[in-house]
Specification:
The protein has 391 residues and is of the alpha+beta class. The chain is built from 12 helices and 13 strands. Helix 3 crosses helix 5. Bound molecules: alpha-D-galactopyranose.
Protein backbone atom coordinates (compact mmCIF):
# COMPACT_ATOMS: atom_id res chain seq x y z
CA UNK A 1 0.00 0.00 0.00
CA UNK A 2 1.44 3.45 -0.79
CA UNK A 3 1.55 6.09 1.92
CA UNK A 4 -1.41 8.10 0.61
CA UNK A 5 -3.62 4.99 0.68
CA UNK A 6 -2.26 4.13 4.10
CA UNK A 7 -3.04 7.51 5.71
CA UNK A 8 -6.44 7.60 3.98
CA UNK A 9 -7.36 4.10 5.21
CA UNK A 10 -6.15 4.83 8.75
CA UNK A 11 -8.03 8.12 8.71
CA UNK A 12 -11.29 6.33 7.79
CA UNK A 13 -10.75 3.71 10.50
CA UNK A 14 -9.97 6.35 13.13
CA UNK A 15 -12.59 8.99 12.33
CA UNK A 16 -15.26 7.04 10.44
CA UNK A 17 -15.31 9.16 7.28
CA UNK A 18 -13.16 10.08 4.28
CA UNK A 19 -10.55 12.84 4.88
CA UNK A 20 -11.31 16.19 3.25
CA UNK A 21 -7.71 16.76 2.09
CA UNK A 22 -4.25 15.27 1.72
CA UNK A 23 -1.09 17.35 2.17
CA UNK A 24 2.46 16.34 1.34
CA UNK A 25 5.83 17.83 2.35
CA UNK A 26 9.22 16.40 1.33
CA UNK A 27 12.46 15.76 3.19
CA UNK A 28 15.68 17.21 1.79
CA UNK A 29 19.25 16.36 1.02
CA UNK A 30 22.00 18.98 1.18
CA UNK A 31 24.84 18.93 -1.35
CA UNK A 32 27.06 21.67 0.03
CA UNK A 33 27.04 24.28 2.80
CA UNK A 34 26.77 22.15 5.95
CA UNK A 35 26.35 23.78 9.36
CA UNK A 36 26.51 27.20 7.76
CA UNK A 37 22.81 28.16 7.64
CA UNK A 38 22.89 29.47 11.21
CA UNK A 39 26.06 31.39 10.33
CA UNK A 40 24.36 33.34 7.50
CA UNK A 41 26.10 31.25 4.82
CA UNK A 42 24.94 29.62 1.56
CA UNK A 43 23.32 26.20 1.34
CA UNK A 44 22.58 23.98 -1.65
CA UNK A 45 19.82 21.53 -0.76
CA UNK A 46 17.15 19.80 -2.86
CA UNK A 47 13.76 18.53 -1.74
CA UNK A 48 13.70 14.76 -2.23
CA UNK A 49 11.08 12.28 -3.39
CA UNK A 50 10.39 11.05 0.14
CA UNK A 51 7.81 12.91 2.16
CA UNK A 52 5.34 13.18 5.01
CA UNK A 53 1.68 12.79 4.03
CA UNK A 54 -1.30 13.97 6.10
CA UNK A 55 -4.94 13.02 5.60
CA UNK A 56 -7.02 15.64 7.40
CA UNK A 57 -10.35 17.41 7.88
CA UNK A 58 -11.63 20.29 9.98
CA UNK A 59 -13.59 19.26 13.08
CA UNK A 60 -16.33 20.84 15.17
CA UNK A 61 -14.67 19.39 18.29
CA UNK A 62 -12.89 21.89 20.55
CA UNK A 63 -9.66 19.88 20.42
CA UNK A 64 -7.43 18.63 17.62
CA UNK A 65 -6.76 14.90 17.29
CA UNK A 66 -3.65 13.57 15.53
CA UNK A 67 -2.75 9.99 14.78
CA UNK A 68 0.86 9.12 13.87
CA UNK A 69 0.87 5.93 11.80
CA UNK A 70 4.65 5.52 12.21
CA UNK A 71 4.33 5.47 16.02
CA UNK A 72 0.91 3.83 16.15
CA UNK A 73 -0.08 6.54 18.64
CA UNK A 74 -2.73 9.19 18.92
CA UNK A 75 -2.99 12.46 20.82
CA UNK A 76 -5.56 15.21 21.38
CA UNK A 77 -4.89 18.78 22.53
CA UNK A 78 -6.63 22.13 22.86
CA UNK A 79 -5.42 25.17 20.96
CA UNK A 80 -6.21 27.49 23.92
CA UNK A 81 -3.44 25.98 26.03
CA UNK A 82 -1.10 24.95 23.22
CA UNK A 83 1.84 26.64 24.95
CA UNK A 84 1.56 24.18 27.88
CA UNK A 85 2.51 21.28 25.53
CA UNK A 86 -0.11 19.04 27.16
CA UNK A 87 -2.79 16.63 25.98
CA UNK A 88 -6.45 17.06 26.90
CA UNK A 89 -5.93 14.94 30.05
CA UNK A 90 -3.10 17.36 31.08
CA UNK A 91 -0.34 14.79 30.54
CA UNK A 92 2.65 15.93 28.41
CA UNK A 93 2.35 15.70 24.61
CA UNK A 94 4.27 12.76 23.17
CA UNK A 95 7.57 13.85 21.57
CA UNK A 96 6.40 13.30 17.99
CA UNK A 97 3.42 15.62 18.59
CA UNK A 98 5.64 18.58 19.52
CA UNK A 99 6.32 19.24 15.82
CA UNK A 100 2.69 19.65 14.66
CA UNK A 101 1.68 21.30 17.95
CA UNK A 102 4.67 23.66 17.61
CA UNK A 103 3.47 24.67 14.15
CA UNK A 104 0.00 25.34 15.55
CA UNK A 105 1.61 27.46 18.26
CA UNK A 106 3.78 29.51 15.88
CA UNK A 107 0.87 30.12 13.46
CA UNK A 108 -1.29 31.27 16.37
CA UNK A 109 1.49 33.62 17.48
CA UNK A 110 0.99 35.32 14.09
CA UNK A 111 -2.73 35.69 14.87
CA UNK A 112 -3.62 33.41 11.99
CA UNK A 113 -6.78 31.33 12.20
CA UNK A 114 -5.70 27.79 13.16
CA UNK A 115 -8.86 25.66 13.42
CA UNK A 116 -9.03 22.35 15.26
CA UNK A 117 -7.98 19.48 13.01
CA UNK A 118 -8.42 15.73 12.73
CA UNK A 119 -5.39 14.25 11.04
CA UNK A 120 -3.52 11.04 10.32
CA UNK A 121 0.06 11.28 9.10
CA UNK A 122 2.90 9.03 8.02
CA UNK A 123 6.31 9.54 6.45
CA UNK A 124 8.81 7.65 4.37
CA UNK A 125 11.58 10.10 5.29
CA UNK A 126 13.59 8.01 7.76
CA UNK A 127 13.69 9.67 11.19
CA UNK A 128 17.03 10.87 12.57
CA UNK A 129 18.74 10.22 9.25
CA UNK A 130 19.80 13.75 8.29
CA UNK A 131 17.03 14.04 5.68
CA UNK A 132 14.85 16.46 7.68
CA UNK A 133 11.93 14.28 8.63
CA UNK A 134 10.91 16.80 11.30
CA UNK A 135 10.87 19.74 8.88
CA UNK A 136 8.72 17.66 6.52
CA UNK A 137 6.20 17.06 9.32
CA UNK A 138 6.19 20.77 10.18
CA UNK A 139 5.74 21.91 6.58
CA UNK A 140 2.99 19.36 5.90
CA UNK A 141 1.02 20.64 8.92
CA UNK A 142 1.62 24.25 7.87
CA UNK A 143 -0.02 23.38 4.53
CA UNK A 144 -2.89 21.61 6.31
CA UNK A 145 -3.64 24.58 8.57
CA UNK A 146 -3.30 26.96 5.66
CA UNK A 147 -5.99 24.94 3.85
CA UNK A 148 -8.31 25.00 6.88
CA UNK A 149 -7.53 28.54 8.07
CA UNK A 150 -8.45 30.33 4.87
CA UNK A 151 -5.21 32.30 4.61
CA UNK A 152 -2.19 31.94 2.33
CA UNK A 153 1.41 32.62 3.28
CA UNK A 154 4.40 32.66 0.91
CA UNK A 155 6.35 29.40 1.21
CA UNK A 156 9.39 31.11 2.78
CA UNK A 157 7.11 32.54 5.48
CA UNK A 158 5.77 29.06 6.27
CA UNK A 159 9.36 27.85 6.46
CA UNK A 160 10.28 30.60 8.95
CA UNK A 161 7.29 29.75 11.14
CA UNK A 162 8.30 26.08 11.06
CA UNK A 163 11.81 27.05 12.15
CA UNK A 164 10.35 29.17 14.94
CA UNK A 165 8.30 26.17 16.11
CA UNK A 166 11.40 23.99 16.18
CA UNK A 167 13.57 26.66 17.90
CA UNK A 168 11.10 27.86 20.50
CA UNK A 169 8.59 25.03 20.97
CA UNK A 170 10.59 21.84 20.34
CA UNK A 171 13.86 23.40 21.58
CA UNK A 172 16.28 22.62 18.74
CA UNK A 173 18.25 25.67 17.64
CA UNK A 174 18.20 24.72 13.94
CA UNK A 175 18.77 27.09 11.05
CA UNK A 176 16.38 27.71 8.16
CA UNK A 177 17.71 25.23 5.58
CA UNK A 178 15.45 22.23 6.22
CA UNK A 179 12.11 24.01 6.43
CA UNK A 180 13.14 26.15 3.44
CA UNK A 181 13.93 23.13 1.26
CA UNK A 182 10.76 21.30 2.32
CA UNK A 183 8.60 24.38 1.67
CA UNK A 184 10.26 25.73 -1.49
CA UNK A 185 11.53 22.61 -3.34
CA UNK A 186 11.36 22.57 -7.14
CA UNK A 187 11.26 19.43 -9.25
CA UNK A 188 14.62 18.48 -10.81
CA UNK A 189 16.36 21.51 -9.30
CA UNK A 190 18.88 22.26 -6.63
CA UNK A 191 18.09 25.26 -4.44
CA UNK A 192 20.71 27.86 -3.61
CA UNK A 193 19.76 29.87 -0.53
CA UNK A 194 21.54 32.87 0.94
CA UNK A 195 20.69 32.33 4.60
CA UNK A 196 21.30 35.99 5.42
CA UNK A 197 19.09 37.74 2.84
CA UNK A 198 16.85 34.67 2.37
CA UNK A 199 17.10 35.23 -1.37
CA UNK A 200 17.16 31.99 -3.29
CA UNK A 201 17.27 30.61 -6.79
CA UNK A 202 17.13 27.25 -8.48
CA UNK A 203 20.10 25.64 -10.18
CA UNK A 204 19.55 22.78 -12.61
CA UNK A 205 21.26 19.58 -11.61
CA UNK A 206 23.89 18.92 -14.31
CA UNK A 207 22.37 16.47 -16.80
CA UNK A 208 24.94 13.74 -16.51
CA UNK A 209 24.79 13.20 -12.73
CA UNK A 210 22.59 11.43 -10.19
CA UNK A 211 22.25 12.13 -6.49
CA UNK A 212 22.57 8.94 -4.49
CA UNK A 213 21.59 8.83 -0.81
CA UNK A 214 23.19 6.18 1.38
CA UNK A 215 21.71 5.54 4.81
CA UNK A 216 24.20 4.07 7.28
CA UNK A 217 21.16 3.04 9.41
CA UNK A 218 23.05 4.37 12.44
CA UNK A 219 21.04 6.75 14.62
CA UNK A 220 22.54 8.77 17.43
CA UNK A 221 20.45 9.85 20.38
CA UNK A 222 20.54 13.29 22.02
CA UNK A 223 22.05 14.93 18.97
CA UNK A 224 20.15 18.16 19.62
CA UNK A 225 22.44 18.91 22.58
CA UNK A 226 25.56 18.47 20.43
CA UNK A 227 23.95 20.54 17.68
CA UNK A 228 23.15 23.41 20.03
CA UNK A 229 26.75 23.25 21.35
CA UNK A 230 28.15 23.66 17.81
CA UNK A 231 25.95 26.67 17.30
CA UNK A 232 27.08 28.19 20.60
CA UNK A 233 30.75 27.70 19.61
CA UNK A 234 30.14 29.67 16.40
CA UNK A 235 28.56 32.49 18.38
CA UNK A 236 31.51 32.47 20.77
CA UNK A 237 33.92 32.71 17.81
CA UNK A 238 32.08 35.76 16.47
CA UNK A 239 32.15 37.41 19.89
CA UNK A 240 35.93 36.89 20.24
CA UNK A 241 36.81 37.81 16.65
CA UNK A 242 34.84 41.04 16.95
CA UNK A 243 37.66 42.38 19.15
CA UNK A 244 39.85 42.56 16.02
CA UNK A 245 37.16 42.58 13.35
CA UNK A 246 34.48 44.86 14.83
CA UNK A 247 32.41 44.94 11.61
CA UNK A 248 31.53 41.23 11.63
CA UNK A 249 28.00 40.15 12.51
CA UNK A 250 28.45 36.44 11.86
CA UNK A 251 31.09 34.04 10.52
CA UNK A 252 29.76 34.84 7.05
CA UNK A 253 31.60 38.16 7.34
CA UNK A 254 35.00 36.56 8.02
CA UNK A 255 37.15 35.60 5.03
CA UNK A 256 39.78 32.87 5.23
CA UNK A 257 42.71 35.32 5.34
CA UNK A 258 41.27 37.34 8.21
CA UNK A 259 40.41 34.14 9.99
CA UNK A 260 43.95 32.81 9.67
CA UNK A 261 45.33 36.06 11.03
CA UNK A 262 43.27 35.98 14.23
CA UNK A 263 42.47 32.28 14.68
CA UNK A 264 45.19 31.74 17.28
CA UNK A 265 43.28 34.00 19.67
CA UNK A 266 40.43 31.50 19.83
CA UNK A 267 40.29 28.51 22.18
CA UNK A 268 41.23 25.33 20.23
CA UNK A 269 37.77 23.87 19.97
CA UNK A 270 36.15 27.17 19.01
CA UNK A 271 38.84 27.69 16.39
CA UNK A 272 38.17 24.28 14.81
CA UNK A 273 34.40 24.85 14.67
CA UNK A 274 34.77 28.33 13.22
CA UNK A 275 37.38 27.24 10.66
CA UNK A 276 34.96 24.66 9.30
CA UNK A 277 32.29 27.32 8.90
CA UNK A 278 34.53 29.94 7.29
CA UNK A 279 36.01 27.44 4.82
CA UNK A 280 32.66 25.80 4.09
CA UNK A 281 31.10 29.16 3.27
CA UNK A 282 34.05 29.66 0.89
CA UNK A 283 33.31 26.29 -0.74
CA UNK A 284 29.60 26.89 -1.07
CA UNK A 285 30.32 30.29 -2.64
CA UNK A 286 31.84 28.44 -5.59
CA UNK A 287 28.92 26.03 -6.03
CA UNK A 288 26.80 27.98 -8.47
CA UNK A 289 29.64 28.80 -10.88
CA UNK A 290 30.92 25.23 -10.90
CA UNK A 291 27.53 23.62 -11.43
CA UNK A 292 26.52 26.05 -14.15
CA UNK A 293 29.80 25.39 -15.93
CA UNK A 294 29.20 21.65 -15.58
CA UNK A 295 32.40 21.26 -13.57
CA UNK A 296 31.12 18.34 -11.55
CA UNK A 297 34.60 16.93 -10.85
CA UNK A 298 35.64 20.11 -9.03
CA UNK A 299 32.28 20.36 -7.30
CA UNK A 300 32.67 16.77 -6.12
CA UNK A 301 36.09 17.58 -4.73
CA UNK A 302 34.51 20.32 -2.62
CA UNK A 303 32.01 17.75 -1.29
CA UNK A 304 34.91 15.48 -0.31
CA UNK A 305 36.68 18.38 1.41
CA UNK A 306 33.48 19.21 3.22
CA UNK A 307 33.37 15.70 4.66
CA UNK A 308 36.93 15.89 5.97
CA UNK A 309 36.11 19.21 7.57
CA UNK A 310 32.89 17.92 9.19
CA UNK A 311 34.82 14.91 10.46
CA UNK A 312 37.97 16.59 11.77
CA UNK A 313 37.03 20.19 12.52
CA UNK A 314 33.31 20.23 13.24
CA UNK A 315 33.43 16.68 14.67
CA UNK A 316 29.92 15.65 13.69
CA UNK A 317 30.76 12.46 11.79
CA UNK A 318 30.86 8.90 13.15
CA UNK A 319 32.75 5.72 12.15
CA UNK A 320 29.92 4.35 9.99
CA UNK A 321 29.55 7.62 8.05
CA UNK A 322 33.31 7.64 7.46
CA UNK A 323 33.25 4.04 6.19
CA UNK A 324 30.38 4.86 3.81
CA UNK A 325 32.18 7.95 2.49
CA UNK A 326 35.57 6.20 2.12
CA UNK A 327 34.11 3.35 0.11
CA UNK A 328 32.09 5.70 -2.10
CA UNK A 329 35.06 7.93 -2.86
CA UNK A 330 37.04 4.90 -4.03
CA UNK A 331 34.37 3.75 -6.52
CA UNK A 332 34.44 4.72 -10.18
CA UNK A 333 31.78 7.19 -11.31
CA UNK A 334 31.70 8.91 -7.89
CA UNK A 335 32.50 12.62 -8.11
CA UNK A 336 31.99 13.39 -4.44
CA UNK A 337 30.66 11.90 -1.21
CA UNK A 338 30.05 13.29 2.24
CA UNK A 339 27.74 13.11 5.22
CA UNK A 340 24.60 15.20 4.78
CA UNK A 341 22.55 17.11 7.37
CA UNK A 342 23.51 17.62 10.98
CA UNK A 343 25.62 14.44 11.21
CA UNK A 344 26.12 12.06 14.20
CA UNK A 345 24.80 9.18 12.05
CA UNK A 346 22.26 9.12 9.26
CA UNK A 347 22.97 9.48 5.56
CA UNK A 348 25.65 10.39 3.09
CA UNK A 349 25.04 12.22 -0.19
CA UNK A 350 26.91 11.11 -3.30
CA UNK A 351 27.26 12.80 -6.66
CA UNK A 352 27.61 10.05 -9.25
CA UNK A 353 27.83 9.81 -13.06
CA UNK A 354 24.31 9.01 -14.21
CA UNK A 355 25.03 5.84 -16.20
CA UNK A 356 26.97 4.34 -13.30
CA UNK A 357 24.57 5.14 -10.46
CA UNK A 358 22.90 1.71 -10.13
CA UNK A 359 26.22 -0.08 -10.16
CA UNK A 360 27.65 2.43 -7.68
CA UNK A 361 24.74 1.88 -5.29
CA UNK A 362 25.18 -1.90 -5.44
CA UNK A 363 28.94 -1.81 -4.86
CA UNK A 364 28.59 0.70 -2.06
CA UNK A 365 25.98 -1.44 -0.32
CA UNK A 366 28.13 -4.57 -0.61
CA UNK A 367 31.26 -2.82 0.60
CA UNK A 368 29.52 -1.18 3.56
CA UNK A 369 27.87 -4.41 4.60
CA UNK A 370 31.14 -6.32 4.38
CA UNK A 371 32.92 -3.77 6.57
CA UNK A 372 30.24 -3.04 9.18
CA UNK A 373 27.81 -5.97 9.10
CA UNK A 374 24.98 -3.43 8.70
CA UNK A 375 22.43 -3.46 5.86
CA UNK A 376 22.40 0.06 4.41
CA UNK A 377 19.62 1.55 2.34
CA UNK A 378 20.98 3.17 -0.81
CA UNK A 379 18.89 4.84 -3.50
CA UNK A 380 18.99 7.31 -6.36
CA UNK A 381 16.89 10.32 -5.40
CA UNK A 382 15.02 12.85 -7.55
CA UNK A 383 14.58 16.50 -6.64
CA UNK A 384 10.89 17.12 -5.94
CA UNK A 385 8.46 19.97 -5.43
CA UNK A 386 7.99 21.53 -2.01
CA UNK A 387 5.06 21.16 0.40
CA UNK A 388 1.64 21.17 -1.26
CA UNK A 389 -2.00 20.28 -0.97
CA UNK A 390 -2.80 17.27 -3.18
CA UNK A 391 -6.06 17.17 -5.13
C1 LIG B 1 20.14 20.36 10.67
C2 LIG B 1 19.48 21.70 10.89
C3 LIG B 1 19.77 22.66 9.73
C4 LIG B 1 21.27 22.72 9.44
C5 LIG B 1 21.86 21.31 9.33
C6 LIG B 1 23.36 21.32 9.19
O1 LIG B 1 19.56 19.70 9.57
O2 LIG B 1 18.08 21.57 11.03
O3 LIG B 1 19.26 23.94 10.02
O4 LIG B 1 21.94 23.48 10.39
O5 LIG B 1 21.52 20.51 10.45
O6 LIG B 1 23.74 21.95 8.01
Amino acid sequence: MNIIDQVTATYKETFGHTPAHIARAPGRVNLLGEHVDYNDGFVLPAAIDRATFIAFSPTTALHSTLRAVDFNQQTSFFSENISLKTQIDSSPLPEWALYPAGVMWSLMEENLSVPAIQAVFASDVPRGSGLSSSASVEMAFAIAWQALGGWTLPSMQRALLGQKAENQYVGVNCGIMDQFASACGVENKLLLLDCRSLEWKTIPLPKNVSIVIADTTVRRKLTSGEYNKRRAACEEAVRLLQQDLPHIKSLRDVNVNDFNQFASKLPDEVEKRARHVVEEIGRSNQAQGLLEAGEVQTFGKLMNECHVSLRDLYEVSCPELNVMVNIAQGLEDCYGARLTGAGFGGCTVNLVAKGGAENFAQKLANGYEAETGLHPEIYITHASNGAELLE
